[in-house]
Amino acid sequence: MIRVSVVGAKGRMGSHVVDAVNGAADAQLALALDAGDDLTAITPDNTDVVVEFTVPSVSLDNVLALVKQGVNVVVGTTGWTDDKLAQVKAALAEAPREGQTVFIAPNFAISAVLADHFAKVAAPYFESAEVIELHHPTKVDAPSGTAIHTAQAIGEARRAAGLGDMPDATETDGGSRGQVVDGVHVHAVRLRGLNAHEEVLFGNAGEQLTIRADSFDRISFMPGVLLAVRKVASGAYPGLTVGLDHFLDL
Ligand SMILES: NC(=O)C1=CN([C@@H]2O[C@H](COP(=O)(O)OP(=O)(O)OC[C@H]3O[C@@H](n4cnc5c(N)ncnc54)[C@H](O)[C@@H]3O)[C@@H](O)[C@H]2O)C=CC1
Ligand SMILES: O=C(O)C1=N[C@H](C(=O)O)C[C@H](O)C1
Q: Would you identify the CATH topology of the domain 2-104+218-247?
C-alpha cells in the first residue's frame, strides 16, 4: 500500500485526488491538509508520497518544506520557473533521505501530455506557431502552466531545427498578440463553462495544423496523478523530474 498525503485537499484538484486515492486498490490516504494546517505532520513515518495541488504563491515553500521533512512529492500546482526548479534541486541535494523524489507535472491529463508531445514533433515543420489556452474563470494564473510548457517545447524544437523568428508584421499591439513565451505567442481565454483546454496552431503558406486537447472534467487528471504516485513510490526516479511524458512510452 502506498501511503499518500494530500496538500490542498479542500481545493478543486485536491478533493479529486483524495477521492482517487481512496478509490485506488494500491493506495491509502494518510493525511489530507489544506491552508492553515501544520505541514510538519507529514513525515516518512506516515507518508510515502505527498500530492501537492495548492496555489502558485505557496507551492515552492510547501515543496521545500516537504523535501526537508524527508518525503517524496508529486506536484500539480503551476507557477514553476527555472529559478524555483533550481531551488528544488538544491533542496533535494541536501535531502535527509537517499533517493528522494520531486515530480512536477504541468498537466496530468493524457490528452494534454500527448498534445504537447505532438506539438514538439510538428514544430520544426511550420513557419508559424501560436498557443491558445482556454480555462474556467476561477483560475488564478495566466497563461496556464501547460501553455507555458508547450510554448517552451515549441521554442526549443524550432531552435534545434535552426528556424528563425516567426513572420509577424504587427506594429501596434495593446496586448492582443498575447504573451511571448520563448518566441511563441500565447493567448489566454477565461470563460464560464470551460474547464481546461489548449489549442496549438501551426501554419505554413496554404496550410494549417491544429492540435487540440480538452479536459472537460477534473477526473481526466486522476489517472496521471495515480501513475505519478506509483512511479515516485517505486523509487526509480530520484531527484527532480518535470513532465508526465517521462512516465509514458512516447
Ligand atoms: N497539473 C495539472 O494537471 C493541473 C494543475 N492544476 C493546478 O493546480 C493548482 C490548484 O488548482 P485548483 O485545485 O483548481 O485550485 P483551488 O483554488 O481550488 O485549490 C487550491 C487549494 O489549496 C489550498 N491552499 C492554499 N494555500 C495553502 C497552503 N499554504 N497549504 C495548503 N493548502 C493551501 C486552498 O485552500 C485550496 O483548497 C493550480 O496551480 C492549477 O493551475 C489544476 C488542474 C490540473
Ligand atoms: O487551473 C487549472 O484548472 C489547470 N491548470 C493547469 C495549467 O495551468 O496548465 C493544468 C490544466 O490546464 C488545468
A: Rossmann fold (3.40.50)
228 is in an annotated binding site: no
- Which of 68, 84, 117, 139 is flagged as catalytic? 139
Q: Is 124 annotated as a binding residue?
A: no
pTM, to two decimals: 0.97
- CATH 3.40.50.170 corresponds to the domain 110-215: no
User: What was the ipTM of the complex prediction?
Assistant: 0.99
CA-only gyration radius of the chain, Å: 19
> Would you call 135 a catalytic residue per the annotation?
yes
What are the backbone angles phi and psi of residue 120, rounded to the nearest 5°?
-65, -40
The x, y and z cell numbers of residue 178, run together, are 498575447
143 lines ligand 1 (CB under 6 A): no
Residue intervals in the chain for CATH 3.40.50.720: 2-104+218-247
| 69-113 pLDDT tens trace | 999 999 999 999 999 999 999 999 999 999 999 999 999 999 999
pLDDT at 211: 98
